[in-house]
Amino acid sequence: SSLKLDKLGIDDSPISITGFYAPCSHPQVSNHLTLLSESLPSSSDEQSSTESTSHGNRNKCPVPGTLYNTNTVESFTKLDKQSLLKSEANKIWEDIQSGKALEDCALLSRFLVISFADLKKWSFRYWFAFPALVLDPPASLVELKPASEYFTSEEAESVSAACNEWRDSSLTTDVPFFLVSISSDDSKATIRHLKDWEACQGDHQKLLFGFYDPCHLPSNPGWPLRNYLALIRSKWNLETVWFFCYRESRGFADMSLSLVGQASITLSSDSSVPNSVGWELNKGKRAPRSISLANSMDPTRLAVSACDLNLKLMRWRALPSLDLNVLSSVKCLLLGAGTLGCQVARTLMGWGIRNITFVDYGKVAMSNPVRQSLYTFEDCVGRGEFKAVAAVKSLKQIFPAVESSGVVMAIPMPGHPISSQEEESVLGDCKRLRDLIESHDAVFLLTDTRESRWLPSLLCANANKIAINAALGFDSYMVMRHGAGPTSLTDDMQNLDMNKAGRQRLGCYFCNDVVAPQDSMTDRTLDQQCTVTRPGLAPIAGALAVELLVGVLQHPLGIYAKGDNSSSSNGGNTDESPLGILPHQIRGSVSQFSQITLLGQASNSCTACSETVVSEYREKGNSFVLEAVNHPTYLEDLTGLTELKKAANSFSLDWEDDEDDDEAVDM
Question: How far apart are CA 337 and CA 392, in angstroms?
């Protein structure tokens, strides 16, 4: 599954794989060829598994194979299985004719697998084939008996010792085909590689063709013998062949389990490729096998895999450069768990973002569940559950692997004076909010009031954190990303390409204001106290807010990326961002069904992100926050907005009289 999703995609080219087997080591159980995770090429390594497989493991003799994994079940069904089998058999025959099989005898046991993986249901169809060359006329079995009955006691002891030595050496333990020569003078057995055939010739020697036999049956040699006989007939023109089926017990040669047999081969001058058989039977029939892993998997891990599936499929065709690691590791802080907060959280999870923290001090009201998708009627019963707590519980029910936490706290706001008795509590909230922002990578400003977004905007500018702002009117919405902090440019921009990065900082939520944020909650009617918006706005704005964050995360310049608009020349140029343009602000109206992108530079007089305000906060800390909270004009005085308003009020226009106008025309 990982190989298909992360590397292969829609590429259904044949893949080189490696199977493993070993000699039979139990009198009642055969040692089947096995595929392991290491049988497949690494999802990050371009080399085939055959090239990267380590040797020297006595229990894992490597065998080369080919995997044909189709993209659809229809393609799996339509595969020309006879042609595929013939193609692999041709490879075996070519290796025999060229002598490669003498140098690497594992080539005699090539195999192939066809498969289809349904990655949504964790269901797999597969069919193995072990190509066997059919000799014409076929070889016949003359005799077969336990090795202990064929050898004398001295020969059996010597053969066992030679086999154990061969198996104990890391150089030969996984070499499955070999020659056994036994001297008639002293019954000494010697084991050699197939390429040493000439050294085994002599009048005073018994010569047997040995191989690791995975079969346990006492009356049948195992499947590797078939192509072994084809090699023997082709390379050495022998009509009578004595073969040795090597089997073990407890890791040592066992002559009572091992077999010695005699085969009769009819020589032929025909050098054409023999016919082949080899498709594995399924309960006696020629049919593929299937298995479903869904029921045996941990449900949480199954959910994780299913949620990742859509994102990984994006990389197959639409977004090959999408960096999923960035998304899975980002930590998001959501200030506000209301209508917007619920929509943002759900969309974040859809992008594979799983570390989400909610901050909210409100409780779930009866009017909330129909508009706020993370809450149900049960959350409203009694006095109502805190939204930050209920939202976390809901996310974990939707997706158990999410790492989510809820913080119940109020955000200190300018224009909302506090008493001396409340100072300690408010300053504690300030420190808590600062710590939360500094420990997260991105912050969403989703609160109900304008003034509640001021302190988070300041803290994000101070810590140079990505800040995404979303706000709703009755039938309009605004989504924007804040620019980098004012003091970060001198340090970080030196390492960036100034031609690509914006030369000026992008503005924040308060940069266009000529007044400081003030109390907007006091003396409001019921319709002003509630968030009265058209129900379709929050899903639109919430989705755009998350898409804006993902665009920033995927952009090579990140928070320093300049603001694009819908007419930008890159038009989705993947050299800058694989997701298309990256605007600064998006404003839309459902009454007009319209949407525009806007660009606004940072203001030197901004009450939240200007260098003056950030520097004052760094110098005075808590006392600065208390001044801003308790004195409505403090921020305006600090940033020069007070003087600006005075200058604007005193400004007057001197109109010229008509005579001057006439003169001007005449001239």
Answer: 10
Positive or negative: CA dihedral 550, 554, 555, 558:
positive
Span 524-572, pLDDT tens digits: 555 555 568 999 999 999 999 999 999 999 999 999 999 998 766 554 4
* Nearest C-alpha neighbor of 406 from the set 450, 448, 356, 348: 356
Q: Which residue has the tokens 């001044």?
A: 627
Distances (CA, A) of 98 to 196, 208, 231, 326: 16, 23, 11, 50
Q: What DSSP state is assigned to residue 8?
A: I
Active centre residues (catalytic): 530
Peptide bond into 146 cis (omega under 30): no
Quick one: average pLDDT of 640-648?
Answer: 81
C-beta of residue 376 within 8 angstroms of C-beta of residue 365: no
Average pLDDT over residues 120-144: 93
CA distances from 409 to 360, 426, 429 (A): 6, 10, 7
Bridge partners (DSSP) of residue 212 are: 246
Whose structure tokens read 């304008």? 450
Residue with tokens 């706001």: 413
Query: Dihedral of CA 68/74/80/85: which sign?
Result: positive
Residue among 8, 233, 206 nearest 108 (CA): 233
Sign of torsion, CA 94 84 174 31? negative
At 146, phi and psi to the nearest 5? -60, 145
With bands split at pLDDT 50, 70 and 90, how would you rate the model's confidence at 317? confident
Element (H, E) at 230: helix 225-236
CA angle in degrees (0–180, nearest 5) for 247-250-254: 35
Q: Does residue 583 sit in helix, strand or coil?
A: strand
Is 89 within 8 Å of 226 (Cβ atoms)? no
Interatomic CA distance for residues 446 and 341, integer angstroms = 6
Sequence-distant (6+) residues with CB within 8 A of 541 are 340, 343, 470, 471, 472, 477, 478, 479, 588
| Tokens 């697998």 found at | 113
CA-CA distance, 657 to 665, in Å (whole number)?
13
Contact 254, 286 (CB under 8 A): no
Place of tokens 């590797």: 224
